[in-house]
Amino acid sequence: VEARWPGCRIETEVPMSYRNELGQVSEGFIDMLVRVGENDYVIIDHKVVHDGDHEALVKKYAGQQEVYRKTIEAVGGHVKGVYLHLPHQGELVEIDFGV
Predict the structure, then answer these.
(1) What is the pLDDT, as a whole number, of residue 51?
(2) Phi-psi region for residue 90, left (φ > 0), alpha (ψ -120 to 50) or beta?
(3) Residue 15: partners with Cβ closer than 8 Å, 6 or more residues away
(4) CA-to-CA distance for 53 and 78, rounded, in angstroms?
(5) What span, in angstroms and rounded, lies between the C-alpha atoms of 81 and 86?
(6) DSSP one-letter code for 20
(7) What 8-state DSSP symbol labels residue 29?
(8) What kind and span of H or E run contains 81?
(9) Which residues contact 56 (CB under 8 A, 6 or more apart)?
């Protein structure tokens, strides 16, 4: 992380709560929130999986990551990237929300 984003600050197990436009509430913990600038963040979510089918993993977890992204943006943060960390495969997979 430090090699990719020099000078970053790392927070782990960051509590989050988000209420969407329909009033639905999501609560949980962001595995890793990396502050890469004044108000810029990278979200990293650790997933232990047995295969490396990146497309399937992104589809499976994109909704959860979208809530994390919206949570950070709701408090004025700018999300520069969202990643799934696959420790068993030694990979970091970026989720592109096209925003």
Answers:
(1) 75
(2) left
(3) 27, 28, 29
(4) 28
(5) 16
(6) -
(7) E
(8) strand 78-86
(9) none
What gap in Å lies between CA 27 and CA 22, rounded to an integer?
15
Is residue 62 within 8 Å of residue 68, measured between CB atoms? no
Give the E-state strand segments of the chain in sequence order. 9-19, 25-35, 40-46, 78-86, 91-95
CA atoms of 92 and 21, how far apart (whole Å)? 31
**pLDDT of the chain along its 99 residues, tens only?**
889 999 999 999 999 999 999 999 999 999 999 999 999 999 999 988 877 687 888 888 888 999 999 999 999 999 999 999 988 888 888 888 765
**The pair of three-digit structure tokens given for residue 14, joined into one six-digit string:** 């960051």
Q: What is residue 92's predicted lDDT score, i.e. its pLDDT?
A: 87
Region of 13 please: left (phi>0), alpha (psi -120 to 50) or beta: left
Q: What is 4-19 written as a DSSP string?
A: TSTT-EEEEEEEEEEE
Helix/strand number for the chain, H first, E second: 1, 5
